[in-house]
Design a protein that fits this description.
Elements (H helix, E strand, L loop, with lengths): L7 H13 L7 E12 L5 E6 L4 E6 L1 H4 L10 E12 L4 E14 L1 H16 L16 E6 L4 H13 L4 E6 L7 H12 L6 E6 L13 H9 L4 E5 L7 H5 L2 E2 L3 H8 L3 H34 L2 H4 L2 H37 L2 H4 L1 H22 L1 H6 L4 E4 L2 E2 L11 E6 L2 E6 L2
Parallel strand pairs: 3-5, 6-7, 6-8, 8-9, 9-10
Antiparallel strand pairs: 1-2, 1-4, 2-3, 4-5, 11-12, 11-13, 13-14
């Protein structure tokens, strides 16, 4: 009875044998769209080839991959040649690709580039419109699926790094039909909760799995939000429209949690360093004040305060001596001037001064008499005037001019002929 049962491994090996020996599967030519592409560090390519109804896992080893003239990306349509076989450990069939040619770009990739260009031209990616992420947030919101690794990684990382922060989950569909509307709705809802930071995202997956974060409705909800938003969609190699619109992009959900809060160990270490620096600074200040106090206490002015008055008194005596000397010199000069005036001739013989002044008066009077024009007329001279002006030259007279001749005893009016 037991003989008819075989192991899984036996079945897998049988299927692999059948497939490996099927000549129709030795060389298969397929066309489809690349999804979930990964390049191994050794140069191998791992991806899924899909069409509208089916998908197949594919591997291209380094020896063949190095011959591909382009860099494969999710969404690319390609033509491949390879051999179909079974991977025994998983029992799944896959194609081992030996050649790959580009067959245009997939519809999702085209849609991604078109929306990216449109939103960039509208300014949704501009750096000057990015909001600053607070350094020490108190309330952090998360828009993601309520179950899964993303929310666990975010909450555990935040609690470990900064347990003072409160985390609020806004559960949303992040994949499939209705995901884009759900994510956009939760972003708007969270934006009214007075949060310091909002993290949106999900774990890794294919381009189709992440597509909700490439939708325009989600991009505009992020841009219009007042709350600073960190986008954390997929893995580090995954880029979505949400990453370009958000205020900050994180490579993973865990990375978003690390970016959103400080590490309490770093903060405590910083505070300890500040405490040490403050203690040293306070000690230096106290030492300086103590030294200044000691210098002040040791000053002579405090040891012998009477020294101030001795110096002041000495200065007073010096000033008083100068004042007395100046006063005595001033009085002496005035007395000397008085004695000089007192001994002058005006006080001893005032009549002599009057005689001298009388003689001087007579001399001046004699000079005035000599210059008096009347005296000149008495000596037989005359003064001739024209229009009340003295004529000094014959050139000043014309025919028919009326002249006035002044003599010592009268005036004569004449006309020039």
């Amino acid at each position: 009875m037991q003989d008819k049962y075989i192991t899984v491994g036996q079945l897998t090996r049988y299927i692999k044998y059948k497939i490996d020996n099927d000549p129709n599967l030795e060389e298969v030519y397929l066309k489809g769209e690349i999804s979930n592409f990964k390049a191994h560090s050794r140069g191998h390519f791992y991806f899924t080839l899909k069409d509208e109804s089916s998908r197949i896992n594919a591997i291209m080893f380094q020896s063949s991959a190095k011959k591909v003239p382009f860099i494969p990306q999710d969404g690319m349509k390609v033509l491949i040649k390879g051999k179909v076989s079974v991977y025994p450990e998983t029992g799944s069939y896959q194609i081992y690709v030996s050649e790959m040619l580009e067959d245009g770009v997939g519809n999702l990739y085209i849609a991604f580039e078109q929306l990216k260009k449109k939103l960039k031209e509208e300014g949704l990616f501009d750096k000057d419109k990015k909001k600053k992420i607070p350094k020490i947030p108190e309330k952090i919101g998360v828009v993601t699926a309520p179950t899964g690794a993303a929310i666990r990684d975010i909450t555990s990382t935040i609690k470990r790094r900064w347990p003072l922060a409160e985390v609020y989950l806004f559960p949303a569909l992040v994949q499939g039909e209705g995901a884009k509307e759900s994510v956009a709705k939760k972003i708007k809802q969270a934006d009214n909760y007075g949060l310091d930071i909002l993290i949106i995202g999900r774990g890794g997956g294919s381009i189709e799995d992440l597509w909700a974060f490439n939708e325009e409705i989600v991009a505009r909800a992020i841009f219009e939000a007042k709350t600073p938003i960190i986008s954390a969609v997929g893995h580090e190699v995954d880029f979505t429209i949400a990453d370009f619109v958000a205020d900050m992009r994180a490579p993973t959900p865990t990375g978003a949690a690390e970016m959103s809060v400080p590490d309490i160990k770093d903060v405590l270490n910083y505070l300890n360093q500040v405490k040490i620096r403050e203690s040293i600074s306070i000690k230096n200040i106290l030492d300086k004040k103590k030294k200044a106090l000691e210098e002040l206490v040791n000053r002579n002015i405090l040891k012998s305060p009477e020294g101030i008055y001795i110096i002041k008194e000495q200065n007073y005596i010096n000033l008083l001596d100068k004042l007395n000397l100046t006063y005595n010199n001033y009085i002496s000069r005035k007395i000397h001037s008085y004695e000089k005036i007192k001994s002058s001739i005006i006080f001893k013989d005032p009549l002599r001064i009057l005689d001298k002044d009388k003689n001087n008066f007579n001399v001046v009077l004699s000079k005035l008499e000599t210059l008096n024009p009347i005296s000149t007329l008495n000596r037989g001279y005359s003064i001739t005037k024209k229009d009340d002006k003295v004529i000094e030259s014959i050139k000043d007279i014309n025919k028919k001019d009326n002249l006035n001749i002044e003599l010592k005893d009268g005036n004569i009016n004449v006309e020039v002929i």
